[in-house]
Design goal:
single chain; 879 residues; alpha+beta; Rossmann fold; Immunoglobulin-like; 6-stranded antiparallel sheet; 6-stranded parallel sheet; 13 helices; 48 strands; globular; disordered N terminus; disordered C terminus
Length: 879
């Protein structure tokens, strides 16, 4: 007989929680902290005999909201409803929480589960200039969507950020501290709507990706994979191998990559949601098998890629192109009289507007004169079900087929191309490099979506020496760090092609590819005032920024939304008419940089991608407009860039990665890597000055060429854990050039303060039904949870644990803490027999493994259902 340890739950009493401190006021100086009311449930069963036990460690610097809906349900909430009750949040720290403007009952659960009202939560954090605060929000079920608000107050009680001011209405929200140091107050509130889970992060300057709080689940083509091989030698040998691996065919993509296909029943027929999920699961199982083959170096799903644009509400055609003077283009054109002439710009996108899309030509009138003449080159790479033109499969015509919808996303490529290369013809708009050669390459099809395999094939072609391409613009993204795509990009880069890519529109510091690859210029977006657009990604994906627009702002006070105006078209009723539209997105920012490179190369034909990176690292291409985390090297400045190219004085530059070192109690030693620009630059280090005795570098590096990396260590015994420390490493090289590496140290985070909230620990069947057969509840002690189960029937089970902050009966949802054995995101069954199992170790966190760590998407994961009375509401998919 199976024992079920869970809740004995009847109908729970509906509660209302009254939040004091002024409700929805924007002021921090609020009065009166009112108490909270909640409800209780019956206690669980305590097992007597132990058969499974272990420890769940809590990720360093993790905290939890003290009045979640789960706390309120148990009458164990600790009020944090005003600044005097604010919870301390370490830096770099992550807190998971819950807010709701209303209270009520979750529908359709069969369990009568309630959610409580909790209007606001307060936190404090010791912040300094360069640190950042971010808020991510996750809606709960089918309830009325909630609307969250983030406010930050400096040590003098001055509000320095409000997400309702100059920001889009949807999170995630981010604020980078511009000045000051001390205790900042952070308010998270619910403006309207139902229950929301959230993750609040306070990150030190230089901290890399922190916002991976949801499992990555990008789309991909069922039944297809992209692989590279370990085997070297003649192509036929490789062809024989991939043919043996692919039951339904293999296609060479170039740069050593192959597209493999499997036999997938029903692939061509319209499928319901359940059948689609099955196909995705079968594809990932096949890919897992391919990874185990000794001759396969890398393999990934054939991911979908997407245009990186956001379409604002309907806009009239703006004659003003504020984006051009923002980067000093009118002056740059005077210094670059060739206007990019002779430079080939490949815009890999949805193709190009044509009045007659079934034939090559009749392009948008603002682009027609610059488009490369027709040839035998394949310029349309879209294949499969995403190809909606009248020439199925790859062909020589990159015309955009449209889709018959107003403001179709498929004319995205024309918009991007116009920013780069629109002709100066006294009509419409003018492009950055308005005499460059435009090479439209169609890689995105239906609804602005393409496949990884088609993109690899296109980049491999453009990377060939005789392609006529000098710069590749990729206003797209959505893939993980795919090896085959990176190889194709590196091959193109080595042959003198600069690759520019959009950094992404998710307002996150999670790496976006291809922008985050080393040999790609990742471009973030700014508004008309030079401020990071509310949607623009930041962090490792951003090398610099350019105008991308922000429809929620009017930063230049011209009475119009800050959108980028460029070429567009309509195809209503099958009649193709050219036009113009205003859009926003990092898709719009990237072609500004591609165009500036074309201007530079038009004046200095010998300019190489490596030299461009050297000039960028040396600060000769940009203006500093904010922190490197948000803006990279800064805002592209066209006149500075052209002058740098014309001078021919390309510096040998030494750069460090990371550019800022941040240490904590959990991280007292880091690897500091060195990068040379250009890659063959001769660098000699003359001296190294370390700012403080508590900072050490090993090995000593003065007096020679820089090693690939060094180890930097902090001696914590010399430091006070209650203080924030700042120092620097100053490296002098090549006759006086300097590389300065800031260092920040925060040691505060005693282990016993770590708390990820009340955890429900479950044993779940591994037969695909994921039934909870045993359940216990644990609280944090000394920075960890200790759990034990009584006798459980022999069998194979998944061991999982997590919070239920919104009290909807599911753990491990986005925004909730989660632990899975042995590794979060990659659960493996444990076998329970007749002998007790002890010493099991897991780790829990509000953050999630990246897709590179998982190796594949987490398909349709919705969390694990707690063992409460009522029918199963939904399933999970475990890969």
């Amino acid at each position: 007989m199976k024992l079920r340890f869970g809740f004995s739950v009847g109908v729970l009493a509906l509660v209302t929680v009254i939040a004091g401190c002024g409700g929805g006021s924007s002021d921090r100086s609020l009065s009166g902290c009112l108490g909270q009311t909640s409800f209780a449930i019956g206690s669980g069963v305590e097992p007597s005999a132990v058969s499974v036990s272990g420890v769940i460690e809590i990720e360093s610097q993790t905290r939890v909201d003290s009045d979640t809906s789960d706390d309120l349900r148990l009458n164990q909430a600790v009020s944090n409803n005003c600044d005097t009750e604010a919870q301390p949040l370490p830096v770099t720290g992550v807190a998971g929480g819950y807010v709701s403007a209303t209270s009520g009952i979750y529908p359709d659960t069969g369990q009568q589960l309630d959610f409580a009202q909790d209007v606001q939560d307060y936190y404090t954090a010791q912040l300094k200039a360069g640190d950042r605060v971010s808020l991510q929000v996750f809606q709960t079920g089918d309830m009325e969507p909630g609307r969250a608000r983030l406010q930050i107050f400096d040590p003098s009680d001055r509000q320095v950020f409000d997400s309702q001011s100059g920001f889009t209405s949807e999170p995630p929200f981010l604020h980078s501290i511009a000045m000051g140091q001390g205790e900042f107050t952070i308010r998270v509130s619910s403006v309207s709507g139902g229950p929301m889970r959230y993750v609040l992060i306070a990150a030190a300057e230089g901290t890399t990706s922190m916002m991976n709080t949801a499992y990555a689940d990008p789309g991909f083509v069922p039944g297809e994979a992209v692989a590279t091989l370990r085997r070297t030698g003649p192509e036929p040998a490789g062809e024989q191998l991939v043919t043996s691996l692919a039951a339904d065919g293999a296609v060479a993509l170039g740069s050593g990559a192959w597209k493999l296909s499997m036999n997938l029943p029903g692939a061509a027929a319209p499928l319901n949601q359940q059948a689609q999920a099955w196909q995705r699961t079968e594809t990932l199982s096949w890919i897992k098998t391919l990874r185990e083959h000794p001759d396969v170096a890398s393999v990934s799903p054939n991911y979908h890629i997407h245009a990186q644009t956001l379409s604002p509400e309907s806009n009239p055609l703006y004659s003003r192109q504020w984006n051009l003077p923002l980067i000093n283009l009118p002056i740059a054109w005077q210094a670059a009289p060739n206007f990019g002439r002779g430079v080939g710009v490949a815009v890999m996108d949805t193709g190009l507007f044509s009045a007659t899309p079934n034939s090559y030509g009749n392009w948008h009138p603002d682009l027609n004169a610059n488009v490369v003449p027709a040839s035998v080159d394949l310029l349309d790479y879209v294949s499969g079900e995403l190809d909606i033109d009248n020439q199925q499969g790859r062909d020589t015509n990159p015309a955009d087929p449209g889709d018959g919808q107003a403001r179709s996303s498929n004319f995205h490529g024309s918009h991007v191309a116009g920013i780069v290369s629109a002709v100066d013809n006294s009509a419409g708009i003018v492009g950055v490099a308005n005499a460059s050669t435009l090479i439209p390459v169609r890689v995105l099809g239906r609804q602005g979506t393409g496949s990884l395999s088609d993109l690899i094939a296109a980049v491999s072609w453009a990377g060939q020496a005789d392609s006529g391409v000098d710069v590749i613009n990729l206003s797209l993204g959505g893939v993980g760090p795919d090896v085959a795509l990176e190889n194709a990009i590196n091959d193109a880069f080595s042959r003198g092609k600069l690759i520019v890519a959009a950094a992404g529109n998710a307002a996150t510091d999670e790496p976006t590819y291809p922008a985050a690859f080393d040999n790609v210029v990742g471009v973030g977006a700014v508004d008309a005032g030079g401020t990071r657009a509310s949607y623009s990604n930041f962090g490792v994906s951003v090398d610099l920024v350019a105008p991308g627009g922000d429809a929620s702002r009017d930063a230049n006070l011209d009475g119009a939304a800050d959108v980028i105006t460029s070429a567009w078209g309509t195809d209503d009723g099958g009649v193709f008419e050219p036009g113009y539209a205003g859009l926003q997105g990092t898709s719009m920012a990237a072609p500004h940089v591609a165009g500036v490179y074309a201007l530079m190369k038009g004046e200095e034909p010998t300019l190489t991608p490596g030299q461009f990176f050297a000039l960028l690292a040396d600060g000769q291409l940009t203006d500093t407009v904010g922190s490197a985390t948000e803006y990279g090297a800064g805002l592209i400045n066209a006149i500075k860039a052209v002058d740098a190219a014309r001078s021919g004085n390309i510096p040998d530059v030494l750069a460090a990665s990371p550019s800022v070192l941040s240490f904590s109690q959990a991280t007292l030693s880091q690897t500091l890597s060195f990068v040379r620009y250009p890659s063959l630059a001769e660098i000699t280090i003359q001296s190294v000055v370390v700012g403080d005795d508590w900072l050490q570098i090993d090995p000593a590096i003065a007096g020679g060429a820089p090693p690939s990396s060094v180890t930097v260590t902090v001696d914590a015994s010399q430091l006070d854990t209650s203080q924030i420390y700042s120092s620097e490493i100053l490296i002098t090289y090549n006759g006086g050039r300097e590389l300065e590496i800031p260092v920040n140290v925060r040691l505060v985070d005693p282990t016993d303060e770590r708390n990820a909230g009340r955890h429900y620990v479950l044993l779940v069947t591994s037969d695909g039904n994921y039934d909870t057969v045993a359940q216990t509840v644990v609280s944090a002690t000394g920075g960890q949870y200790r759990f034990q189960f009584g006798a459980v029937d022999p069998g194979d089970y998944f061991l999982v644990a997590g919070t239920d902050t919104d009290n909807n009966g599911f753990i491990c949802e986005s925004g909730e803490a989660c632990a899975e054995y042995p590794v979060n995101g990659l659960p493996q069954p444990i076998s329970v027999g007749l002998d007790p199992i002890s010493g099991i170790a897991l780790s829990t966190s509000f953050r999630r493994p990246t897709i590179s760590a998982l190796g594949a998407p987490r398909v349709d994961f919705q969390g694990y259902r707690l063992n409460r009375d009522g029918p199963t509401a939904k399933k999970v998919q475990v890969q």
